[in-house]
Amino acid sequence: MQDATTLLCPLCRGALELSIAPRRTLACPAGHRYDAAKQGYFNFLTGKGTNFLEDTSPMVLAREAFQHRGHYAPLAAELAALVAAHHPADQLDIIDAGAGTGYYLGEILDRHPATRKDALAMDISRFAMRRAAKLPDTLAVVWDVWREIPSRDESRDVVLNCFAPHNPAQFRRVLRPQGLCLVVTGAADHLEEVREPLDMLSIAGGKQEALVEKFGTEQLAHLGSRNLSYAMELDPEDLFNLAFMGPAGHHLSPEVLRAKAASLGSRTVTASFDVHLFVPQG
């Protein structure tokens, strides 16, 4: 049995159909075929691959552990509420571009069941897509957000982009006319108490203005931005996971980082997110 999807073959842009038996496979009319890995995800980064570093298995485990503690649950709830407000009763097609473990997408699916139609989680990390593949009614695909998104034109009602590279031209292409693009970035005071002692990357100033300008050039109108800020009570294990799960995890020594987190003890740390809302225009 084959089911049509909104996905496109990354090699020829032909429509991909999903077959279940004898194994889960995506295939296009030209004969290009992608078999699911045993963990359930599909890898479209064949051949040349990507020049960017994927999050490693230890980094993904740290992120999963931190998210499991509920420290970013208020952000997930905010995103789910924004989706429900924009599309209160519709059955939606969602793409999570740079999905990581799929945590935010999963929370939206749980809180807004009408979204369960053809969700797509996309990330360059195979280890992250192993987690995202466990989400119900979701196709998890290893792919580079900087490239052409393997989804049809105007095939998505919501594009979710949390702490991930932005590709506004592609976001605009795949969004339907009444669609919504949600972009989450760290505010200037995000994690300000521990960024320096844990050797985490700094947050550049003026990000919101640059983001709005960048998306505007691709015909995505800025509906507004809202800041979500609250205090987190983090123990040394949380602090280690917080630092190691992000971009700094590519160059931090786990042993050194654990020692630094232990020396800080339990801390109150600011979580501060800017949530930006964009809609297609023109």
UniProtKB/TrEMBL annotation:
<feature type="binding site">
    <location>
        <begin position="101"/>
        <end position="102"/>
    </location>
    <ligand>
        <name>S-adenosyl-L-methionine</name>
    </ligand>
</feature>
<dbReference type="InterPro" id="IPR048647">
    <property type="entry name" value="RlmA_N"/>
</dbReference>
<protein>
    <submittedName>
        <fullName>SAM-dependent methyltransferase</fullName>
    </submittedName>
</protein>
<feature type="binding site">
    <location>
        <position position="32"/>
    </location>
    <ligand>
        <name>Zn(2+)</name>
    </ligand>
</feature>
<dbReference type="InterPro" id="IPR016718">
    <property type="entry name" value="rRNA_m1G-MeTrfase_A_prd"/>
</dbReference>
<keyword id="KW-0808">Transferase</keyword>
<dbReference type="GO" id="GO:0032259">
    <property type="term" value="P:methylation"/>
</dbReference>
<feature type="binding site">
    <location>
        <position position="190"/>
    </location>
    <ligand>
        <name>S-adenosyl-L-methionine</name>
    </ligand>
</feature>
<feature type="binding site">
    <location>
        <position position="72"/>
    </location>
    <ligand>
        <name>S-adenosyl-L-methionine</name>
    </ligand>
</feature>
<keyword id="KW-0949">S-adenosyl-L-methionine</keyword>
<keyword id="KW-0862">Zinc</keyword>
<feature type="domain" description="23S rRNA (guanine(745)-N(1))-methyltransferase N-terminal">
    <location>
        <begin position="8"/>
        <end position="45"/>
    </location>
</feature>
<keyword id="KW-0479">Metal-binding</keyword>
<feature type="binding site">
    <location>
        <position position="28"/>
    </location>
    <ligand>
        <name>Zn(2+)</name>
    </ligand>
</feature>
<dbReference type="GO" id="GO:0046872">
    <property type="term" value="F:metal ion binding"/>
</dbReference>
<dbReference type="GO" id="GO:0008168">
    <property type="term" value="F:methyltransferase activity"/>
</dbReference>
<dbReference type="Pfam" id="PF21302">
    <property type="entry name" value="Zn_ribbon_RlmA"/>
</dbReference>
<keyword id="KW-0489">Methyltransferase</keyword>
<dbReference type="InterPro" id="IPR029063">
    <property type="entry name" value="SAM-dependent_MTases_sf"/>
</dbReference>
